[in-house]
């Protein structure tokens, strides 16, 4: 009889992604480090929580003040405040003013705007990374405006782990879609209360060595790090990285001392997605222990910047895979 305990450690993947009711969970060495939620009735899919290397929650759901009306801050989520189709006519007539949809705040009873999870495309376990490829539709006005294909990948790193987020937004019916000028979009991160500058005495640092909301807000940077206490005498944080291949890199940042940050892709101007020109963006959220210095985080960004994009492979008649 084969002795199972004699199998080499490399036979078992260090990182895994497992399906569960209404979502997926990501594991590193058998311990959950992040969860992706897409259950029925949700206004949008989201990740909650992202855990530190010691297992503490680095993100939270909603604002520390429950009366602040920030329920749309779903830990780590995609959205955009102003989304509208561009009507183009060929007969010289002036196109009608299109309706504008809000995919950032939670939808009201008068709006059907939702980001609807449609399917899981692939799940991949491995010694270096575990990945999930998922599809969602940005739905409003009784139809799908955009198809979003996203790969979420957990990477095993020394004394840390990261979640890479690679997403593509594509038009569905040939009509151009505009992401309007706004601070609110596309990928938001709400950090744990104890990490925030206002409520926990945390530190916000960017790649230019600037510290604090007033020095970082609306400034371009390769990355922004939010670090603080996760337990007594225990520090950890999230470094949110913008890849050099992204349009408008280095992006301008929307950061707040109350505990949230976003790479504001449309802070300076709107962006239009054409039928044959999808928008692709790559980010990394590095979950680390301790309060890392500027040099260490710049090196971590450089390592991310050298990584190849993920590829979704869907061969006919075979199990889909994610490779890099």
Brief rundown of the structure:
By secondary structure, the chain is mainly β.
Q: What does this 3D model show about the protein?
A:
With 324 residues, this protein is mainly beta. The protein has a single domain (7-315), classed as Beta-galactosidase, Chain A, domain 5 (Distorted Sandwich), CATH 2.70.98. It contains three helices and 21 strands. It has helices at residues 197-200, 213-216, 294-305, and strands at residues 15-20, 23-28, 31-37, 46-50, 76-80, 83-86, 114-124, 129-140, 143-157, 160-171, 176-179, 185-190, 203-206, 223-231, 234-242, 252-256, 260-264, 271-273, 279-289, 311-313, 321-323. Strands 1-2-3-4-5-12-17-16 form an eight-stranded antiparallel beta sheet, with no helix packed on it. It has an eight-stranded antiparallel beta sheet with strand order 7-8-9-10-19-15-14-13, covered by helices on one side. A three-stranded antiparallel beta sheet has the order 6-11-18, with no helix packed on it. A hairpin with a 2-residue loop joins strand 14 and strand 15 (234-242).
Keywords:
mainly beta, Beta-galactosidase, Chain A, domain 5, 324 residues, eight-stranded antiparallel beta sheet, 3 helices, 6% helix
- What radius of gyration results from the CA coordinates? 20 Å
Strand order of the largest sheet: 1-2-3-4-5-12-17-16
Distance between the termini: 37 Å
User: Helix coverage percent of residues?
Assistant: under 10%
Mean pLDDT: 92
| The number of domains | 1
Detail the poorly predicted runs: none
